[in-house]
Amino acid sequence: VTDASYAEIAARILLDQGQEHSIETPHGLLHVTVHGTGNTRRPAILTFHDVGMESKSCFSTFFKFEEMQEIVKNFTVVHVDAPGQEEGAAPYPLGYVFKSNHADKRQAGLNRCSVCFHWYSFRSVIGVGVGAGAYVLSRFTLSNPDSVEGLVLVNIDPNARGWMDWAAQKISTLTSSLTEQMLSHLFSQEETSGNTELVQSHRERISKAPNLSNIELFWKSYNSRRDLNIDRNSTLKCPVMLVVGDQAPYEDAAVECNSKLDPTTTSFLKVEPMCHLLLPEIAKLVKQ
Length: 288
Prior knowledge:
Elements: H1 3-17, E1 19-25, E2 28-36, E3 44-48, H2 55-59, H3 66-74, E4 76-81, H4 102-119, E5 125-130, H5 132-143, E6 148-154, H6 163-175, H7 178-186, H8 189-194, H9 197-207, H10 212-223, E7 240-245, H11 251-260, E8 266-271, H12 280-287
Helix pairs in contact: 3-12, 4-5, 7-9
């Protein structure tokens, strides 16, 4: 085997595993994994995961699809983990709380994306977010329209929680474990009732997570979100792909979001359940 072949093999290993960085922010330590070329002249692909997941469980399968391999080879892919959510993260000390008021919670998500954006000197990004991550990236885009060239938003809910949602959540915290609440957020009722192998694997992953208390903090923060206040006069300026699973918990919210975006720059895709895992069909569309 030639030296060039060894170099190519080493490069592929590095590309597959990514380079991990920890960045200090005013809102906690930010764990970031970078794959790809490091070319700042092209837009980077910036991902943000959902509650109950982290970047690896949310996106690793998606970026292994053949359709995404060419993108990874030619673009920088940056996976951002919310503070305390990364795989193997230590639990926060007892009594630790996120910023207590709504403005701070909202700004925290923006600052995480902004810090990452400026840390790597990106000219622009293409955002891929799921659930809570879709919300964070949307708000970042509304505040920084010139920095985002496109968005892929999976299972987005742009609305603040209403009183009925608040009451239902309070009851849920009394009757269901945090793990079951996470599963109800990630999967449709049909999927959780079927208790498939996939649901079981996520149940085991979440219930045995050493940072379960951190996950609960992220969950509470997401449930305290403000409305994005999107309408045709105040909307996302970049091209947007909305993706939602059939009978997914946030199907109605995604449909409502679609009605408020510019139809000339928005595409809407409804897929079979389990779209939070980002199916190959989505990978093909992202590549296009």
